[in-house]
Amino acid sequence: MEKMPKWADVVLIPLISLLLAALLSALVILAIGESPVEAVNLMITGALGSTYGWGYTLYYATNFMFTGLAVAVAFHARMFNIGGEGQAMLGGLGVAMVCLYVPWPHWSIALLAACAASMLFGAAWAAIPAYLQAKRGSHIVITTIMFNFIAAAFLNYMLVNVMRPKGSMDPATARFPEAVHLPTLHELLAPIGINFSKAAPANISLLVAIFACFVVWALIWRTRLGYEIRAYGHSETGAVYAGISPVRITIVAMLISGALAGLMATNNVMGEAERLVLNSTEGAGFIGIAVALMGRSHPFGVFLAAILFGFLYQGGAELALWTSIPRELIVVIQALVILFTGALDNMVRMPLEKLFLGLRKGVE
Amino acid sequence: MTVPAIELKGISKAFGPVQANKDISISVAPGTIHGIIGENGAGKSTLMSILYGFYKADKGEIWINGQQTSIPDSQAAIAAGIGMVFQHFKLVENFTVLENIVLGAEDGGLLGPSLAKARKELKELEEEYELFVDPDKRIDEIGVGAQQRVEILKALYRRAEILILDEPTGVLTPAEADQLFRILDRLRAEGKTIILITHKLREIMEATDTVSVMRRGQMTATVKTAETSPQELAELMVGRKVLLQVDKVPAQPGKPILEIEGLRVIDEAGVERVKGIDLTVRAGEIVGIAGVAGNGQSELLEVLGGMRPGLGSIKLNGAPLALSGSGSDGQARRAQHIAHVPEDRQREGLIMDFHAWENVAFGYHRDPAYKRGIFMDNAALRADTERKIEKFDVRPPDGWLAAKNFSGGNQQKIVVAREIERNPDLLLVGQPTRGVDIGAIEFIHKQIVALRDQGKAILLVSVELEEIFSLSDRIAVMFDGHIMGERLPQETDEKELGLLMAGVAGEAA
After folding, report:
1. Least CB-CB distance to B348: which of A237, A245, A361?
2. Which of B204, B238, B272 is where one domain is finished?
3. How far apart are the CA of A252 and the nearest CA of chain B, in angstroms?
4. What is the Cα–Cα distance from A75 to B330, expressed in whole angstroms?
5. Do residue B362 and residue A230 have CB atoms under 8 angstroms apart?
6. Confidence band of A58 (pLDDT split at 50, 70, 90)
7. What's the pLDDT score for residue B509?
8. Topology at the third CATH level for domain A62-310
9. Peptide bond preceding B72: is omega within 30 degrees of 0, i.e. cis?
10. Which of B365, B382, B405 to mutate against chain A (most A CBs within 10 Å)?
């Protein structure tokens, strides 16, 4: 017997968690002497009130979809990939190499090559922790965290010593050639008569991200590999019984996870910055964890949660810009959302389960 | 009329929509052994958990020695003189017997005086009840029977007048079980009241004065043991007539299917679990492996099922099986027509969160029949599940239900259906009816015998001697990684097997 209906699990719990986080945030804003109502107003108009706002919200959301999917795939194999950040950085390196060192005739081919390169680099960066987990039992949480630092240091070295254009003081690569410029939503929507903001960074990799959601969904729920990943995630002894190799699944799931995180670089590096800079990932790898938790590791949930966090990011930036609410407080609000939707899941779940059990008893 | 030691009046307890206990009343006279028998899930454990303060009853009263008592937690239960011996012992393995007995009942911050006092009291208790264990041995140095005696001593040390034993013989050899029943006799003679929870009819008949039968959360009868019969109790448990004996014609063994020679298994910790065994299983026969849990039977099954590596030689239909490295995993075994009903269906045989139809593919998920292009053919799989559910009478007949939402018996039916319907040359069966209700046991046994009659080889591992006797055409007994001997069921009895299970070698096999 299920403890509560499925809709309550996937809709009601995140919603209540979100409300609680919002309430607490409101109290914090009140405490520093600002109006929560005004703050919410500002966030909504800033993030969703214009195509400019939407353009940023969707740009962030695209990042979070990739990293959220990455974390979700690993979750299905009961692994906690905290290394999305590092894998996305390496993905950026792959994209930069493809864009800088190969003359591409058209952006579409360049995008395909960039996808391949970013996935390859991201997967490669996940491969070492995956191997260590599978063969040596080194915990994936520890190794992927450490690999984030190694990735940052490696990227620093590459940018300062190898890829920096001669004479530049900036630890960044040269600007990518015009031929690999990805169409923004403005350019994509103009032909069909929609006037989308020119300045917003959302670009065609949003479609790549949505496509990735579909692919991950099909992979997890429709293929034998997905079946094996889920089976292994639920029970390792069960997997061994069924002849599913834990070593193989651990490595394969992490490679897919790393590839998805790496893919994020098509958005932030190729689509937005059009060059590789230090700290290009801006913590999106970590937000991916919250997105996957809130999205219940389901691609559609990840899609929705990514848009929510995109909204929080963009709305938060607006808030910092137009009020005296300091930038740090925006981080507090985001942290509250992560805390309630992720870590404190059971706090909402348990009373709700009791409530539903009580209701059902009443009906009988 | 003496005042009952325990009286439960109208106890009810529900977990959500499941009514675990419904209006249960029993009364146990002091100085008697009262049995509570019922199938798994009948509500026995819930009732005892209420009595021991783990759960709070929704309704009902508990009276101890004529006084209404409320038992909100186990501390209160101990204070009321109730002691509990759990099915899975709650002992600290690397503490000594004495330390375990004192644990939780220390007198103060300093351990020395408590231990000295306990040592003295323990000696008195041991002599009074003839419960002997060496107080200075560590728990992991003493046998299972002795560990159980420590649990009983723990309860007595806490001045328990009422002892509850939950499935106490599950892990014991027949000889150890007999010893336990002698101890219970002695305790009864000293005036203690004992409640014995079990699903084994034999133990009820041997040990108890009165017996209550539970079915689906309700108390269906309370009778004097002397005035009932196993047949009657079984009927009361299941609610209909049951066959305690499996109907089967004599086996007609054909050519050897499985030939094991000098098999050794060394586990992850480097301990040798199987120490060189030889065994042959022929077509059309059921070979039963008897033994107390933990003597290498599980490891034997796991090597055959491709779950762990082994050393030595195993042939299937004359061809050698890989025992390690590639070609030795569960997929390879299935490709070689070995099907496997594993010992632990919840951790191995099923993915509890998967739908029934997903579980029907478990282990066979790479079967081309379930494949369409790069995807799994879920429609074909669901149709196949419908067929199996109908043929094996899985209830409720809902392929979309998650495995965890079926009862133990129906979960096992899903596993058995999946494996038997593969029409394997060799079927490995581990504890096929553990935690399965009597009705389903009957059904599963019939299916296994039917497969044998089709000329398939079956290797059965079970810790239930009754099951070994009723199914096997040949019995091998394992002890400490060795096969102590092989017997024909009609030429041996529980006593002889019990000796072999305890490591006392009979004449050469």
Report:
1. A237
2. B238
3. 17
4. 24
5. no
6. very high
7. 39
8. ABC transporter involved in vitamin B12 uptake, BtuC (1.10.3470)
9. no
10. B365
Range A22-29 average pLDDT? 91
pLDDT tens digit sequence for B359-408: 999 999 999 999 999 999 999 999 999 999 999 999 889 999 999 888 88
Average pLDDT, chain A: 92
- Element housing A310 (H / E): helix A299-322
Residue A1 has pLDDT above 50, yes or no: no
Under 8 Å between Cβ of B429 and B461: yes
| Closest by CA position to B150, among listed B182, B183, B117 | B183
Chain A residues whose CB is inside 8 A of the B12 CB are none
CB contact under 8 A, A224 and B376: yes
From chain A, pick out residues whose CB is under 8 angstroms from the CB of B358. 227
**What pLDDT does residue A268 have?**
96
- Are residues B340 and A241, on separate chains, in Cβ contact within 8 Å? yes
Q: Do B301 and B438 belong together in one domain?
A: yes
Alpha carbon distance B259, B278 (integer Å): 8
Torsion of CA A329, A333, A336, A342, to 10 degrees: -130
Measured CB to CB, residues of chain B less than 8 Å from chain A are: 14, 16-18, 305-307, 329-334, 340, 342, 344, 347-354, 358, 361-363, 365-366, 371, 374-376, 378, 402, 405
**Model confidence at A248: pLDDT above 90:** yes
Q: Could you give the count of Cα atoms lying within 13 Å of A103 in the half-sphere of its Cβ?
A: 0
Shortest distance, CA A2 to any CA of chain B (angstroms): 8
- Chain A residues whose CB is inside 8 A of the B16 CB are 1, 3, 357, 360-361
Q: A51 CA to chain B: closest CA distance, Å?
A: 39
Q: How far is B66 from chain A (nearest CA, A)?
A: 34
How high is the pLDDT of residue A3?
Answer: 65
Which tens digit of pLDDT belongs to each residue from A90-105? 999 999 999 999 999 9
Could you tell me if residue B398 is inside a domain?
A: no
Cα A252 from Cα A131, distance rounded (Å): 10
Same domain, yes or no: B462 and B490: yes
User: Are B306 and B230 found together in one domain?
Assistant: no
The residue among B109, B106, B110 whose CA lies nearest residue B98 is: B106
Query: Do A257 and A73 meet the contact criterion of CB atoms below 8 Å apart?
Result: yes
**Least CA distance to A223: which residue of chain B?**
B375
**Which residues in chain A are closer than 8 Å to B14, comparing Cβ atoms?**
361
Helix axes B438-453, B408-420, angle to 10 degrees: 10
Q: What ipTM goes with this model? A: 0.87
The pLDDT tens digits for A126-183 are 999 999 999 999 999 999 999 999 999 999 999 999 999 988 989 999 999 999 999 9
Question: Any idea which residue has 């930036």 for tokens?
Answer: A317
Interchain contact, B351 vs A234, CB within 8 Å: yes
Domain assignment present for residue B244? The answer is no
Tokens of B88: 């899975």
CB within 8 Å: B14 and A227: no
Alpha carbon distance, N-terminus to C-terminus of chain B: 57
By CA distance, what is B367's nearest residue in A?
A: A224
Which domain covers residue B290, as residue numbers?
Answer: 256-350+423-501
Q: Are residues B163 and B277 in the same domain?
A: no
Q: What residue of A is the nearest CA neighbor of B403?
A: A1
Which residues in chain B land under pLDDT 70?
1, 16-17, 40-41, 240-244, 505-509
B270 belongs to a structural domain: yes
A207-237 tens-digit pLDDT: 999 999 999 999 999 999 999 999 999 999 9
Contact A228 B348 (CB under 8 A): no
What residues contact B14, with CB distance under 8 A and at least 6 apart?
A: A361, B20, B58
Residues B218 and B273 both lie in one domain:
no
What is the pLDDT at residue B35? 93
